[in-house]
């Protein structure tokens, strides 16, 4: 196997880790200091550092879901410098363990399986983070802010600063603001009366002048907008108010929670219309709709479009992507847990074994009206352990994608076929020419190359990306010759041409991703490749441009299953003994390592492994 000197990487990483560790401060955040009458409040301008503790959970943030990119102006190293979905501003001594806690956990539920969907400083904030800039930046990068204005809210200079910033973002950025009046009257907040006004007046002598002026003004603006009064909403039932706030967030921002789709879709509208006829959501029956076709034909893309179209019609939803690979890597229990967590809205539910898993699905999920997408199934046993014997509520829709038509027992099936000549040429041209008009000579060769792809979208995208920006007619003809020489090439053989066009270092990185790093943070792998002098940044840029890899919003590697399988076939040819292959994974790797330990033990070297 190729030498990846892990020991050298570890030694190299140590100084970096040490250097990046911030100096810790033992000073609590400003808002906590305000609650201690024997201490003077810190000035925000001093940028105090926070040492998180269970006593300082003042701010909760819900990060932006799918499709969000971090703003360059935000701190790249701070947990709260990224984009967020909801910012909760509240007075900890009033609502930390009551209303705010209930709302926080409900947001955790609706944010299932989205990494860092909910942020809470006592759990997630790095030691030594500067408070002022980061929390105000978090407000700026949120889509929704919920100020929970309680009796002692105005007694906190920090809460007032946040509210001022929230109202500014509403005016300048169109941020959604949903003020909650918790145990206080609108007139008291607006005119600083009663216990609310007294709390402000008793503390205002400690505030900076701008807060004394702008704080009450921000409170008036908040009350003048749509407010939710905890005592009056649903006769004071707080759970109903929590549910209403979550419902508003989810309803108004549905598109942010839907799975992402690739760009440059071609020839998809007619296919979507045909599958939607099979879905027929006006009918009250429960239906399983199967989409089948060869790998790389676009089954996942089509199923995702259908799922997104029906997304807001179902409260209980689950998107189980790449089931075959997930089960191979993490087991059927992982997928069962995901399904149960999604449908029942349980945070990170875990089943101990598959028997308990399917029994839980049958007993607790079947009385729900569900929308479930089970993507890339290759085994009847897997389907049986996910939805076998389940009686979902009338109106439920389950979408299953597979390469194997025989797995789909339902009467509702759709075969996804290759693109026609016109759509194939259009898709290829979008990747090869990026909307530009090619020369007459290249246009002719382009037509001939497209004819050899068999209308397979993945091949059209990968090969088009390979030729993007290439103006040398000879190279185009060379590529055409490769295809026409073997007209019966498999999908993987067609994709192999793009792999062969990579440099040696780029090929090594491609194989590493295919075998080890799919779904993992690319930054960890980059450290290793950089130490091996494989020049990963330029290599990854090229592979991304050529559609061989992608990275999601969490910096995790994504690779189409056909490209993944290609990489694994190259790394582990079937005609080679495992110990002679460049890369091994899963159980096979453990068997080889165990054998090496046995062989090396007599020489006293077993500790090396």
Question: Care to describe what's here?
Answer:
By secondary structure, the chain is an alpha/beta fold. The chain folds into three domains: about 25-250, Rossmann fold (3-Layer(aba) Sandwich), CATH 3.40.50.10140; about 265-415, Rossmann fold (3-Layer(aba) Sandwich); about 420-500. The protein is about 50% helix and about 10% strand. The chain is built from 27 helices and 16 strands. The strands form four sheets. Strands 2, 3, 4, 6, 7, 8 and 9 form a seven-stranded mixed sheet that branches. The chain has a five-stranded parallel sheet with strand order 11-12-13-10-14, with helices on both faces. The model is unreliable at about 1-30, about 30-80, about 120-125 and about 595-609 (pLDDT under 50).
CATH architectural name of the largest domain: 3-Layer(aba) Sandwich
State the total count of DSSP E strands: 16
Number of helices: 27
Largest sheet: 7 strands, mixed
Apparent shape: globular
- Rounded to an integer, what's the Rg over CA atoms? 28 Å
